[in-house]
Design goal:
alpha/beta; Peroxisomal Thiolase, Chain A, domain 1; five-stranded mixed beta sheet; four-stranded mixed beta sheet; binds oxa(dethia)-CoA
């Protein structure tokens, strides 16, 4: 049975740097609060009209494909993870297929928010192991800056998120000591509403935190003026509750991956945690007894880019020579859903 290796990797972050200081123009916040609670110093925002989730994915994908020594027409399948798609439907996978001039291959969008990229890797790995495909483009891309509440009301969410994209080419390999060892996926919908964007949606306030829409007229449920006027088109997060769960589930899913392969934390050469909050990453590092050299963080520069955070961090760690051939790399993520996941691989 073939295994899957990362044959090429690429990332793209928009040019525009947005500092914590700049955010003070829009809301009541401070550089001190943001850095102390999250570790974030700055993030990138895509160009409002010229850049989208898909165009950023195209840039990251071009690099990943070139890195793999391939051309877009060599790609057999696309798995695209995002929570900020260009359109409500169709998904970004087909837009990427079109923009890159690929063959009429399958394109699948994954909606697992922060753990989207690790889920996407797992899905692609199954297609490769089954022998169905040889080269799969796996992408995580987000344009958060287009859908955040930049008033003080939304400050606990809006200061955290940034834009960017990362991509890998997952390729079939028979090389020994190379490629994905295992992936581990989990969910618990009991707290689905504490980190969510309710609208547009078909819930008609069955589950949401907001006002009752029982009186809405036909056609109003999906997205009404009322919803927009009362800021119900923005993400909602109960930050402290998410934090408490994240610091339990991150170490758990990393240990699950290690134990499944008879390994221990000291065997990890590089842990790439989803960049949710520097404090979460530091807590996980401490729990697992990992050194600073074993964990890569870049939330300080990019904020939380959700599905793009793991591939951007993985790419940057590799570019800086911190990941070498044969290294044991662990990817781990936790977020909205809740969903959480890990992947263990030899680079
Ligand atoms: O990637 C997906 C998964 N997401 C996560 O893992 C996020 C997990 N949660 C977190 O990272 C943290 O909970 C946050 C960074 C979101 C918030 O930090 P916190 O230490 O949990 O703060 P808090 O929400 O408990 O708020 C503390 C105070 C509040 O004021 P009062 O009620 O104490 O007067 C907030 O209103 O900080 C206030 N606050 C702010 N102040 C300045 C909230 N946001 C801001 C802000 N600037 N941006």
């Amino acid at each position: 049975m073939p295994k899957s290796k990362i044959a090429g990797i690429g990332k793209y972050v928009p040019e525009r740097v947005v500092t914590n200081e700049e955010l003070k123009q829009y809301m009541d916040t401070s550089d001190e609060w943001i850095q102390e609670r999250t570790g974030i110093q700055e993030r990138r925002y895509a160009h409002r009209t010229n850049e989208t989730t898909t165009t950023m994915a195209v840039e990251a994908s071009k690099i990943a494909i070139q890195n793999a020594g391939l051309t877009p027409t060599d790609i057999d399948f696309i798995v695209f993870a995002t929570l900020s798609p260009d359109y409500y439907f169709p998904g970004c996978g087909v837009l990427l297929q079109r923009e890159m001039g690929m063959r009429e291959i399958g394109a699948l969008d994954i909606r697992n928010q922060c753990s989207g990229f690790v889920y996407a890797i797992s899905v692609a790995d199954q297609f490769i192991k089954s022998g169905m495909y040889k080269n799969i483009l796996v992408v995580g891309s987000e344009k958060h800056s287009f859908g955040l509440d930049f008033s003080t009301r939304g400050r606990n969410v809006s200061v955290i998120f940034g834009d960017g994209a990362g991509a890998v080419v997952l390729q079939a390999t028979d090389e020994p000591n190379r490629g994905i060892l295992s992936t581990h996926l989990h969910s618990d919908g009991a707290s689905a509403e504490i980190l969510a964007m309710y609208n547009p949606g078909t819930h008609a306030n069955k589950w949401g935190h907001y006002a009752n829409f029982a009186d809405a007229t036909i056609g109003e449920m999906f997205m009404s003026h009322d919803m927009i006027d009362s800021a119900q088109n923005f993400p909602y997060m109960d930050g402290p509750a998410v934090f408490k769960k994240a610091v339990v589930k991150f170490p758990e899913v990393i240990m699950e991956a290690l134990q499944a392969n008879g390994l221990k934390p000291s065997d990890i050469n590089m842990l790439i945690p989803h960049q949710a909050n520097l404090r979460i990453s530091q807590f996980v590092q401490h729990q697992l007894g990992l050194s600073d050299q074993q964990v890569y963080n870049n939330i300080q520069k990019y904020g939380n880019t959700t599905a793009a955070s793991v591939p951007i961090a993985l790419c940057e760690a590799w570019e800086q020579g911190k990941i070498k051939e044969g290294d044991l790399v662990c990817l781990a993520a936790f977020g909205s859903g809740f969903t959480w996941a890990s992947a263990l691989l030899h680079w």
